[in-house]
TrEMBL record:
Recorded family membership: Belongs to the heat shock protein 90 family.
Organism, as annotated: Acetobacteroides hydrogenigenes
Protein name according to UniProt: Chaperone protein HtpG
Single GO molecular function: ATP binding
Lineage per the UniProt record: Bacteria, Pseudomonadati, Bacteroidota, Bacteroidia, Bacteroidales
Coiled coil (UniProt feature): 582-616
Length: 686
């Protein structure tokens, strides 16, 4: 037996490895199995070139757990090692590499172990000691190497029937979770499911005598030739569908796929699937699995593909992506950028081809594609340029249009007096039904924009599309959505509007955080008597803030909702209310107006005396007098407003018109809705 000391300056490197890389300690199994695969493939190469004359025989890599002995063993029938090779690759190269790695990254929070570069000694993250029993394919005795987690090791001759290597981990007390078969099975399924050499973990089981029993057949846990390693010409649609079910057993069937197969200027293979995307971006991410030569690396690929592509599902396999560095480095790496750009182009080409060749199918799938396409257009300029040709608008009648087609369809009726093209949309066709019907009566087309990203999307499109303005169908009265040069006829004078304003204001909802502003519009007699709208800009800013629009948007998110209560000055019911008011309160209104006129005349005279003098030059007596008269003016106005409001509250028709407008916006609930129903019954039963 020979004893030795590993040449490292750190007194005990293994606890440092375990502590430093603790968050990733489960990958020890992937590293050891990967090494076994490498050793086996090297042997196949040697036999293929004739350098090794041995029969390959059974090359299955075997993983086993002995709970009683507290060991995990990974065995292969690959090239094996001679004693000199053990000395070189384990005692010198591996551990000097470990020390170099720790020194280099000691001040960084690195979550990956330098994938496939540090393999063997990752075993010490879960072990109190590690044995290596190996026999080279060359004519040399078998060797046993052991290390207990200190820099000291032993190495001696031993026996092993055939070439290959056994790595035996004596599991540490704090890692006994890895002695559970279910845990090892889960790790093998996660990391090794598609490795190119068969991997056996125990035996297949069958149900016998009310329990599962082992059979004589190896339990092979991996597919050695996954479909992304094959040429597209060799595969059928059923193969792609079956592979998707392997990756995502519980998912719905995907819409279609893209097969990636590039060998220049970089190596890239893979299958990407378009899933049926629900209306929630966060639930969809991290479904792409990244592999390096069929070895699973991660399903967090944000640094490797553009953000919007993380909504896709599937597999990417490339040896050209540097996997042992930080994400910020990945984002600036030239190879990664080329791969990312290539994938983006392939995705855009696939969508474009489907749109051109199978438009009917494309339109049927648009509801599921919309979120993905919009996300891409919002976050990737190059994708926007491509997607602008196949992105679609859908109107409330279910008809689909490209951007150019929609522009042609609406330009005649929806171009305003300033030459802007007005895109009218609904984010809830059912709730906004009455507004949509009013728009149709004006020969307007209303599109549906009810997606998670649509408030941001319309904001972007206003900047991208020429002379474009987007307005929600309930953001204003219909005559004002597309403003034309039309002379309006008013049946109510400005003075009468001033009198009616407090009448309607008194019946708007009280007590909530929302604000209501009453205004008058000269609409057609057949239009609704009262319409409640919400300003497009303010509402959109609030929507974007709730979606996470960035620091500047948070201001809008904290503001109360603001609604416009638009009274149709030409509707017969409104003119009837005006007549009732004149009949019942004409004398009182005249009296208030006279009082107000008198005080306003006094105030005008006082202000004339003040002239252009600076505030400090105005005599105190004059200042006091101005303030007194201003107070009187304000008090008269308030008294008059309170009187008109009190009259309005007692006028059931006014209250009914406001409630009907609220009801049409789905804003009448609880006690207010119950009062409306009672009032309606009373009015009907008269």
């Amino acid at each position: 037996m020979q004893k030795g000391k590993i040449g490292v300056s750190t007194e005990n490197i293994f606890p440092i490895i375990k502590k430093f890389l603790y968050s990733d300690h489960e990958i020890f199994l992937r590293e050891l199995v990967s090494n076994a695969v490498d050793a086996t493939q090297k042997l196949k190469t040697l036999v293929g070139t004739g350098e090794c004359k041995q029969e390959l025989g059974d090359l299955t890599i075997r993983v086993s757990v002995d709970k009683e002995k507290k060991t995990i063993t990974v065995s292969d029938a690959g090239v094996g090692m001679t004693q000199d090779e053990v000395e070189k690759y384990i005692n010198q190269i591996a551990f000097s590499g470990a020390e170099e790695f720790l020194d280099k990254f000691k001040d960084q929070s690195v979550q990956i172990i330098g994938h496939f570069g540090m393999g063997f000694y990752s075993s010490f993250m879960v072990s109190s000691s590690v044995e290596v029993v190996t026999k080279s394919w060359k004519d040399a005795p078998a060797v046993r190497w052991e290390c207990d987690g200190s820099p000291e090791y032993t190495i001696e001759d031993t026996t092993r029937e055939r070439r290959g290597t056994d790595i035996i981990l004596h599991v540490a007390d704090d890692s006994e979770e890895f002695l559970e078969e279910s845990r090892i099975s889960a790790l093998l399924n996660k990391y090794c499911k598609f490795m190119p050499i068969e991997i056996a973990f125990g035996k297949k089981k069958e149900w016998k005598d009310s329990k599962y029993e082992d059979t004589d057949e190896d339990n092979i846990i991996n597919q050695t030739n996954p479909i992304w390693t094959k040429k597209p010409a060799e595969l059928k649609d059923e193969d792609y569908a079956e592979f998707y079910r392997t990756l995502y057993p519980m998912a719905d069937e995907p819409m279609f796929h893209i097969h990636l197969n590039v060998d220049y200027p970089f190596n890239l293979t893979g299958i990407l699937y378009f899933p049926k995307i629900s209306n929630n971006i966060d639930l969809q991410k991290n479904k792409i699995q990244l592999y390096c030569n069929q070895v699973f690396v991660t399903d967090s690929v944000e640094g490797i593909v553009p953000e919007f592509l993380t909504l896709l599902h599937g597999v990417i396999d490339s040896p050209d992506i540097p996997l042992n560095v930080s994400r910020s480095y990945l984002q600036s790496d030239a190879n990664v950028k080329k791969i990312s750009n290539h994938i983006t182009k392939k995705v855009a080409d696939r969508l474009s081809t489907l749109f051109k060749n199978e438009r009917e199918t494309y339109e049927q799938k648009w509801a599921d594609l919309k979120l993905f396409v919009e996300y891409g257009m919002l976050t990737d300029e190059k994708f926007y340029d491509s997607a602008a040709k196949f992105a679609m608008f859908k109107d409330v009648d279910g008809k689909h249009y490209t951007f150019e087609e929609y522009k042609d369809a609406i330009k005649e009726e929806q171009t305003d007096k300033d030459g802007k093209l007005v895109y009218i949309y609904s984010n809830d066709p059912e709730a906004q039904y009455s507004f949509i019907q009013a728009a149709k009566a004006h020969q307007y087309n209303v599109m549906v924009m009810d997606g998670q990203l649509d408030s941001h999307f319309v904001q972007m499109l206003e900047g991208k599309l020429e002379n474009a303005q987007f307005v929600r169908v309930d953001s204003d009265v219909m005559d004002n959505l597309v403003r034309k040069d039309k002379k309006k006829e008013w049946k109510i004078t400005p003075d009468e509007q001033e009198n009616l304003k407090p009448v309607f204001e008194a019946n708007t909802p009280e007590g909530g955080e929302a604000m209501y502003h009453v205004s008058f519009e000269a609409l057609s007699e057949t239009a609704a008597p009262v319409v409640i709208t919400q300003n497009e800009f303010m509402r959109r800013m609030k929507d974007m803030s709730q979606m996470g629009g960035g620091g500047g948007m948070n201001f809008y998110g904290k503001m109360p909702d603001s609604y416009n209560v638009v009274v149709n000055a030409n509707h017969p019911l409104v003119t009837e209310i005006k007549d009732d008011l004149n009949t019942e309160l004409k004398d009182k209104i005249t009296e208030y107006k006279a009082k107000l006129k008198a005080e306003e005349d006094v105030l005008a005279d006082l202000n004339k005396q003040k002239g252009d003098k600076k505030d400090e030059d105005v005599p105190a007596e004059l200042k006091t007098r101005i303030e007194e008269v201003e107070g009187k003016v304000e008090a008269i106005r308030k008294e008059e407003s309170d009187m008109l409001g009190s009259w309005g509250k007692s006028h059931k028709i006014v209250h009914q018109l406001i409630d009907l407008a609220l009801l049409s916006n789905n804003m009448l609930k609880g006690e207010a809705l119950n009062s409306f129903l009672k009032r309606s019954l009373e009015m009907i039963s008269r």
